[in-house]
Design brief:
By secondary structure, the chain is an alpha+beta fold. It is built from nine helices and 16 strands.
Length: 306
């Protein structure tokens, strides 16, 4: 495969072909050499990503959101380091939140600028967090992440949203219904968490461990300092929850009095009964027994703005 030919994996977020046609026109106008494949499901993202890797593409661009990027980096981490080091991963945001892309100032509405930046091929090695856990079948599992791991309330909202979306079809409506249903749902989880030399043993609403911005919950995290940012959110009254949502939207989440931040290289969750876990917006279920979250420094080459 020619070194300058891009392998592009398109993950549509709807049935319309207009976005795909618009992206291809911008690429063609700039005479980018590329091969284009389109995913049909989560499983097909991994299959197509592995196909691009093993066919020798040195530049792989994901047109999608955070979950698609998560699948891509997990595929990259499954191949030998000498193969992975020759590949540069890029993103054209086309998801729901696009949190990791937005961190680098890649914006869905600025398609032309995004493509121009990718053409310049400026590469930075970035960190990945890693969740290591035992599943309900007793299997030892791991999952890498770019953004964050959510434990507790936020992961529960993800699960409710998935269930309501299968019934309602609409992403927006399913999110609104999920938030409403949380009024009648568990709001606290008994957790015992070890961070650095501290052992936190108490009830919490939710916990976020971020290598990246973490959807506003770890706003000071950067994906290249070899550290994890942790936000523990203790119990809050209803009015405080709404205040916390406002601070989250306005980028001042850590100012909330129920939020307790840490910075570390490793987190051990010794106990988190009934608390679901989500990785980069995708649910992985409820691990069995203790589990760990660590950081691996500068393991993926990522295309960043000029």
């Amino acid at each position: 495969m020619e070194d300058n030919r891009w392998g592009i994996l398109y993950c549509p977020k709807g049935r319309s072909t207009k976005q795909r046609e618009r992206i291809q026109k911008v690429l063609d106008d700039r005479q980018v050499q590329y091969d284009f494949v389109q995913s049909e499901s989560t499983d097909s993202v991994e299959r197509l990503m592995n196909m691009l890797i093993h066919n020798g593409y040195k530049t792989i661009i994901i047109i999608g959101g955070d979950s698609a990027l998560n699948d891509a980096v997990n595929c990259l981490m499954s191949v030998e380091k000498q193969v992975r080091d020759q590949i540069a991963l890029g993103v054209i945001p086309n998801g729901i939140l696009n949190d990791f892309a937005r961190y680098w100032n890649f914006k869905e509405k600025n398609l032309e600028q995004t493509v121009d930046w990718l053409i310049k091929h400026r590469v930075r090695a970035i960190d990945l967090g890693c969740l290591r856990y035992t599943n309900k079948k007793g299997q030892q599992c791991h999952r890498y992440f770019l953004n964050c791991v959510n434990i507790g309330l936020i992961a529960d909202i993800m699960n409710l949203r998935r269930q309501t979306r299968s019934l309602l079809g609409s992403r927006t409506l399913s999110f609104i219904v999920s938030i409403f249903l949380m009024i009648f749902h568990r709001m606290e989880y008994k957790m015992r968490v070890r961070i650095n030399s501290d052992l936190v043993d108490r009830k919490m609403m939710t916990m976020c461990v971020g290598s990246g911005p973490g959807y506003g919950q770890t706003p000071n995290a950067v994906p290249y300092n070899g550290m994890l940012d942790v936000s523990l959110i203790y119990h809050a009254e209803v009015l405080q929850i709404f205040a916390g949502l406002w601070l989250l939207v306005t980028g001042r989440f850590l100012n909330h009095r129920s939020v307790h931040p840490y910075r570390t290289r490793e987190v051990t969750i010794e106990e988190a009964k009934h608390a679901m876990v989500g990785v980069d917006g995708r649910l992985v279920g409820t691990p069995v027994g203790p589990y760990r979250i660590t950081i691996e420094q500068e393991v993926v080459n990522f295309l960043i703005p000029d």
